[in-house]
Design a protein that fits this description.
6 strands; alpha+beta; about 30% helix; 6 helices
Length: about 180
């Protein structure tokens, strides 16, 4: 499934940043409490050449010299598989330039770290964070390219607005590294 790339979303100079913001807007349209979503990123010009029937869904050819990327949503992730285990089994065909993922998580401010009880297992820590009064729900959209480029977008549920989305290449380094590993040979 492709997502229309000619939305009225934010404009960014970098094709990877544009793709991340497009995926963030796509996820925002579906609301919160959604499962993780995985996207292949393909070069839009190459996609037009290989699948001319998609040209009308891709919108006008406004790629410019910097090119553009088209996100292609993949099948739903298996609910019973840990995210790192799932990503460890992915291999992309050569036509895929990069990949991206959206995932929702709870986060705490750094000041809460000192209050974590000792001896919690992963389930106990998850429960503790879920009950913490300073927790924030966040949607992370992370993308990587084969060449190592990275971009991320973070959206807090409490500030759920396109103008409040934070972007940067190093916001979610763990997930970016896991996605980059799907291109390792």
């Amino acid at each position: 499934m492709t997502h229309d790339s000619h939305s009225d979303g934010p404009v960014a100079a970098n094709p990877l940043t544009r793709a991340v913001l497009e995926i963030d807007a796509y996820a925002a349209e579906r609301g919160w409490d959604q499962p993780a979503r995985l996207f292949a990123l393909v070069d839009t010009a190459r996609l037009r050449d290989r699948a001319p029937g998609l040209a009308d869904r891709l919108g006008p050819d406004t790629e410019g010299a910097g090119g553009s990327l088209t996100p292609v949503e993949q099948e739903e992730l298996p609910a019973d598989t840990a995210l790192d285990e799932f990503l460890g089994h992915i291999a992309w065909p050569e036509a895929v330039t990069g990949c991206a993922m959206t995932v929702e998580r709870l986060m705490l401010p750094p000041s809460a770290e000192s209050g974590v009880p000792d001896g919690l297992d992963e389930a106990g820590l998850t429960e503790w964070v879920a009950r913490h009064p300073e927790r924030q729900e966040v949607r992370m959209t992370v993308a990587v390219l084969r060449d190592g480029s990275r971009e991320s977008a973070l959206r807090l549920r409490a500030k759920d607005s396109p103008s409040q989305v934070l972007t940067g290449p190093d916001l979610v380094p763990g997930l970016a590294g896991a996605l980059a590993a799907t291109f390792a040979e």
